[in-house]
Design goal:
heterodimer, A: about 625 residues, alpha+beta, five-stranded mixed sheet, two-stranded antiparallel ribbon, 15 helices, rod-shaped, B: about 325 residues, mainly alpha, Cytochrome Bc1 Complex, Chain D, domain 2, 2 domains, globular, disordered C terminus
């Protein structure tokens, strides 16, 4: 089934509108739930973890500084987590609708990287410091052992060696103290003291000199590394990791708040939108409900109307069938009247036909009458008197003879004339004339008979003959050529077929002029099942614009009053009712040829009065 | 006077820490014990092991990881410099892959913050594999067997991330607890008296200032030549000598390197980034001179070397076959 384009378009529009409404709903819902509190809590936890880690890291740096950490593993342990947490936070930032965290994240990465770098430097410098710190007492011990050895060996510089011993010891104490409580002044004093040791070099034993140099070297390393480490520690303590984390936290907080605000805003939109949708739904629902009620009412009315309609249809059908019957009736009457009209045209001819035999019947009867008056009546009288005389006992012979003589004379006279033969001949003529009149009457009756349903098998030639006989006066003066073929009898209502033929023959006769008029009647088998009858004239023919209209009712080319205009129309109807067809070929000035084709066995033949088919046509 | 007083304080602290350590039955030392933990995903480790010997990682299919990390030589390269794809020579001696996951950074100059980062850069490194990840992934994915092995471990099959993940997981399984770890865990007889004496000297001479922690190093950077100019003494500088300077571009970081782990140090000759020390003794000698800035009697150094030998893993990881065989068999497999 093909839907109308408008219906399809409306359905498509409806689907699109519904999709759009739902799409907006989904979008609003997504926007209203773009952030969840858990995310925020997690970010806060990560930031807190980061801060915690940093604080512990600071503690571990100080522990390493004070030797409480015996290795640097605690200083590298937080590294993977520091990087992981930053990655996680960056991921969380990307998940947020606002993208303001970038600079704060980069700042944090920078500050952490710098701190990692500082811690790396701290480890390196601290290791050097520790090495020298650990070694300084040993170096002093080694030096003092050498000094002791030299003094024991009786060195000449005993006093200077003792001084060196004291100096070194003092410097060691000072430098260890400086390590714990570093200040620039002490460093300067220790540095000066170390410089003071230098000139002693040349004076001592090379082994002692090497030891002193070694001591100076490591002590200077301690001074240097302590300063570097102090700077590093100061730098480290200035690293604003915690502040940067807080700033990042604030940005996150703001972004989350913005996201939550947006979320809430969209939640409100969603609420409003949902309300509108709900109202729309309610409206649609109420519309539907009303529509449903209207539909119900209409349905009820329809049902009621349907019931009354059936009644009305029944009534109307009855009326129509009545009308149809009347129509059929009037149609039949119309056909009949046309027939009568045709007959009317022929009445003159028919009267003439009857007149002729009637005339000689009358003359014969008059002759017989005169014969009877002149001859038979005297004879019968004489014979009667003779017989009466002969029977009577009182009559004379003479009287008998005289009467006999009269009678004999009369019989002789009668015998001289062939009166009896004349009478028989005259009666015979009269009977012939009467028979002829009878034949004409039968033809008329046949033609006009009212038992229209009478269907029989009948050769078309017989019908043609009957028609030509009747139409004698109409065709008087025309030459009629009959070319009858070997046709099969057809099933038909002969009176109707006769009417058709009469119409055609009459038309042909009227179409031809007085002189040289030729009417040709042809019967033939068109094929094994159809009989064709051609009625051909050499008359005036018809114009091309007339031909298509000749079967229309009330169409006529004749003068007013000369034709009803129904003849061919009725002929057409009769032929089609017989399951046949009628065609016409005409050429002005040459002639006209009507061909009527009848099925031999017209199962479908529906004579005019059988009105089933027509009734069906009206009902349909 | 003050330092005695200090000693008392530190002594007290030490006593306290010792007491705590005694409870844990673990010695409180600058060195921390290493414990082997079986990998959680054995299949991923196995996949990583296959990749470790897979020459398809190299552009010209010439080398695998195992080509330079010789498992019979403590997971390091016995050659001074390693030969990568296309015969390229590396700038420095390849350090051991064993326990490398315990290092706080990868490579001599610490340019990689994690194993993953390090592995990611190895493939395109022209001196190592000289390939591209697209090429490597395509080569691996072309092989149905490899595809299957990956699919068994990773839902998304052969990818750059998964190759790295498998290799990193395998590398993390390559840890080598030693006799010394047993000692640190409280098993006093695990090392001999000589070795213990070596350890004491290792600490007292200051080696332990840098080589400490669980990996005996590997957790900090230090300048090579603290107490003397090593590079001036050695002569001609190479690009690799720049050390961490190559990463930070900070002059202070010139000649600064990641302190290498001393685990399996007895197996990983030659030593230092420039492979300048062919023996452990010579390496210790250099360290004393340039890092500690002091001299020591030979017997002390010998004792320290003795101690260092206790750091060799008791059960070293084994590859299913030697790297050269692996290369050959790989080539054969492809043919």
């Amino acid at each position: 089934m093909r839907l109308p384009t408008r219906t399809v378009a409306r359905a498509a529009f409806g689907a699109l509108a519904a999709a759009a409404l739902i799409g907006v709903l989904v979008m609003l819902y997504a926007k209203s739930s773009n952030v969840d509190a858990e995310r925020k809590t997690q970010v806060e936890a990560h930031l807190k973890h980061l801060k915690q880690l940093d604080a512990e890291w600071n503690v571990d740096v100080l522990k390493s500084r004070t030797d409480l950490n015996k290795n640097y593993d605690p200083l590298v342990a937080p590294l993977p987590t520091l990087l992981d947490l930053q990655r996680t936070l960056a991921g969380e930032a990307r998940a947020l609708p606002q993208k303001d965290t970038g600079p704060a994240l980069r700042a944090l990465a920078d500050v952490i990287d710098e701190k990692i770098d500082l811690v790396d430097q701290f480890k390196a410098q601290n290791a050097i410091l520790k090495n020298s710190l650990r070694y300084a007492p040993t170096a002093v011990d080694e030096l003092r052992a050498r000094i002791r050895d030299a003094r024991a060996a009786g060195s000449v510089q005993r006093e200077r060696l003792a001084l060196l011993d004291a100096q070194v010891n003092q410097i060691l104490n000072d430098v260890l103290k400086y390590n714990l409580f570093p200040d620039a002044g002490s460093a300067q004093l220790i540095g000066a003291a170390l410089t003071g040791l230098e000139p002693a070099d040349a004076a001592f034993d090379p082994a002692i000199v090497a030891s002193v140099r070694n001591f100076i070297n490591h002590t200077r390393t301690i001074l240097r590394q302590r300063t570097i480490e102090n700077d590093l520690l100061a730098h480290l303590s200035r690293m604003p990791v915690s502040e940067t984390i807080d700033r990042l936290g604030a940005v996150f907080e703001r972004d989350f708040q913005a996201a939550i605000d947006e979320s809430n805003r969209y939640r409100n939109y969603l609420l409003a939108y949902a309300s509108v949708l709900l109202a729309l739904l309610a409206y649609i629902g109420s519309r539907l409900f009303r529509s449903y009620r209207i539909i119900g009412r209409v349905n009820r009315e329809l049902k009621h109307a349907n019931e009354t309609l059936e009644q009305r249809v029944r009534e109307r059908t009855e009326e129509l069938s009545h009308a149809l019957v009347e129509l059929k009736e009037s149609e039949a009457q119309l056909v009949q009247s046309e027939k009568m009209a045709s007959l009317g045209q022929m009445v003159a001819g028919v009267a003439h036909e009857i007149n002729t035999p009637l005339a000689y019947v009358r003359s014969s009867l008059e002759t017989i009458q005169s014969n009877c008056n002149e001859v038979l009546r005297p004879l019968i009288d004489a014979m009667t008197r003779l017989v009466v005389l002969m029977r009577g006992n009182d009559a004379t012979e003479e009287q008998v003879a005289e009467q006999f003589e009269v009678a004999s004379q009369l019989v002789d006279d009668f015998g001289e004339r062939p009166l009896a033969d004349d009478i028989v001949a005259l009666l015979k003529d009269g009977i012939y004339g009467v028979d002829e009149i009878g034949a004409i009457v039968v033809n008329l009756k046949d033609f006009s008979r009212l038992d229209r349903d009478h269907v029989s098998r009948c050769p078309v030639e017989q019908c043609l003959e009957s028609t030509l006989q009747l139409a004698k006066t109409v065709i008087a003066g025309k030459r009629v050529r009959k070319l009858y073929g070997a046709t099969k009898p057809i099933t038909c209502a002969p009176s109707q077929i006769n009417q058709v033929f009469l119409n055609l023959v009459t038309n042909a006769a009227q179409a031809t002029g007085e002189a040289n008029g030729v009417i040709t009647v042809v019967t033939r088998m068109q094929d094994t099942d159809h009989v064709a009858v051609d009625v051909i004239d050499n008359g005036v023919g018809m114009a091309a614009d007339v031909v298509p209209r000749i079967f229309d009712p009330f169409f006529t080319t004749k003068d007013v009053g000369k034709g009803t205009g129904l003849g061919l129309s009725i002929a057409y109807k009769i032929v089609t009712d017989h399951g046949g067809r009628i065609v016409v070929h005409s050429k002005p000035g040459v002639g006209t040829k009507f061909t009527v084709v009848f099925p031999v066995d017209a199962h479908a033949a529906q004579p005019v009065a059988s009105n089933n088919g027509s009734a069906m046509a009206i009902a349909a | 006077m003050i330092h005695r007083w200090l000693h008392r304080i530190t002594g007290g602290v030490c006593l306290g820490v010792l007491a705590a350590a005694a409870l844990a039955a673990e010695l409180d030392e600058p060195l921390r014990p290493l414990t082997y933990e079986p990998p959680r995903d054995a299949r991923k480790v196995e996949l990583g092991r296959r990749l470790f010997i897979d020459t398809r990682l190299a552009h010209d299919d010439s080398v695998a990881c195992a080509s330079c990390h010789d498992f019979s030589r403590g997971g390091a390269d016995p050659r001074p410099r390693s030969t990568g794809a296309n015969g390229a020579l590396s700038g420095a001696n390849a350090p051991s892959v064993f326990n490398s996951s315990l290092n706080f950074r990868q490579t001599w100059n610490g340019s990689a913050r994690s194993l993953e980062e390090f592995l990611d850069r190895l493939i395109p490194n022209p001196k190592v594999f000289a390939s591209t990840w697209e090429e490597v992934v395509a080569k691996l994915a072309r092989d149905a067997a490899t595809r299957e092995q990956f699919a068994a471990v990773f839902p998304d099959g052969v990818t750059r991330t998964n190759v790295i993940d498998a290799l990193a997981t395998y590398t993390r399984s390559l840890v080598t607890p030693s006799r010394f770890d047993r000692y640190l865990k409280g098993e006093r007889d695990a090392i001999s008296a000589d070795e213990l004496a070596g350890y004491v000297k290792f600490k007292s001479y200051g080696c332990v200032a840098c080589h400490q922690g669980v990996n005996v190093g590997g957790n900090m950077f230090q300048k090579f030549g603290v107490m003397g100019d090593y590079f001036r003494d050695r002569g001609t500088e190479t690009p690799a000598d720049a050390g961490r300077f190559a990463v930070t571009r900070r002059e202070d970081d010139r000649h600064v390197f990641k302190v290498p782990s001393l685990r399996n140090v007895a197996l990983t000759a030659p030593y230092f980034h420039d492979a300048s020390a062919p023996t452990l003794d010579s390496a210790v000698e250099v360290m004393f001179r340039y890092q500690l800035g002091r001299t020591a009697p030979p017997e002390d150094k010998a004792a320290i070397v003795k101690f260092l030998r206790t750091l060799t893993g008791e059960r070293l990881p084994q590859l299913a076959y030697a790297p050269r065989d692996a290369v050959a068999s790989n080539a054969a497999g492809r043919r």
